[in-house]
Amino acid sequence: MEGDKEEKNLPSDQPSSIFIGGPAKAENILSGSINKNKENKNIRFWGNNNIEEISQTPSWAWFLIGLILIPIILSIISTLILTIADFGLFREINSSNIDNGDSVTINDQTFEVYIFTMSSNFDNNYGTTSFWDLNIESSNPGSLDWMTYISGYYDNIDQRETQDDSGNLWYESNSHSDMQDVYDDPSVYIRVIENKVVVAVGDNLPPPTFSVYYWDNSGPEMNGTTIFSACLIWPVTIIGGTIWSIRTDRKPLAYGLLSWGIVALIALLLFSFAWFIGF
User: Is the dihedral of CA 154, 156, 162, 165 positive or negative?
Assistant: First the structure.
């Protein structure tokens, strides 16, 4: 009876004691206090209280992060991927070691012949990659500079073939547009014999002074993979970032991501349309 009276005399905000049976003459009593702070919280008696921390970042900041900051970061990452992939892929062999050769006749026109001696590894690398470019340049005091080139894919040369009066095969080089404005007929023919680059130059051009061979050491598969990887991170970021934002209740971030994604898509469609109609 006295125990009942003690429980009745407890303060109203104090929970009643609970007796848990155990060994004889032993009392196990659980006691505690009432948590009165129930505002916006899911209070449970057993287990951890599900009290969520409120984010301190305002909604407009999340929106700007998705709209501006993330695209800037992605642009930097894409640029770095392409830059790192291209670093060291293009090699070159050049020479200014030039000798005069015997003149030749091509298409009833006489050409002066100049022979560049390249390094010993030129013959092993010429025409062996997915892209290469052989340039001939002229830079002489008192005369205008000019530059021509031949290029190809492995042993397939892009330029047109022709023969001289002795039956030797030459390639008619392409001239840069500014050169055509200066010279009426900037005809330069090129042929390669082992580590020699032979250049036939018309009478209206000053002699060449420099030869340089560029080649791509990566191959088409690596170039395609690199470009694909640099582009793939954009849609992956949009989709993944949007899903994460919604699941973590950061919807303004998702709105920002979707906004610039839609703008980028519209710009791409407009550019494709303009390209298609010829603008």
Answer: positive
Instruction: Report whether pLDDT(45) > 50.
Output: no
Per the prediction, the chain carries an average pLDDT of 78
**Is the torsion defined by CA of 121, 123, 129, 135 positive or negative?**
positive
Cβ neighbours of residue 230 closer than 8 Å, sequence gap 6 or more = 78, 81, 82
* DSSP-derived secondary structure letter, 50: B
Instruction: Name residue, tokens 């050049």.
Output: 94
H or E element that contains 130: none
Q: How far does Cα 131 stand from its chain's mean position? A: 19
Place of tokens 């002699």: 207
Q: What is the pTM of this model?
A: 0.50
Q: Are 203 and 113 in contact (CB under 8 A)?
A: no
Query: Above 50 in pLDDT, residue 131?
Result: yes
Class of 97-216 per CATH? mainly beta
**Of 265 and 216, which is predicted with more confidence?**
265
Which of 100-109, 175-184, 210-219, 242-251 is the least confident region? 175-184
Q: Would you give the end-to-end CA distance of the chain in angstroms?
A: 99
Domain ranges, ordered by start, for the chain: 59-87+220-277, 97-216
Single-letter residue type at 242: T
Q: Please say whether the dihedral angle defined by the alpha carbons of residues 37, 41, 44 and 48, taken in this order, is positive or negative.
A: negative
Question: For residue 69, what is the DSSP state?
Answer: I
**Cβ atoms of 125 and 195 closer than 8 Å:** no
Give the whole-angstrom CA distance, residue 79 versus residue 254: 24
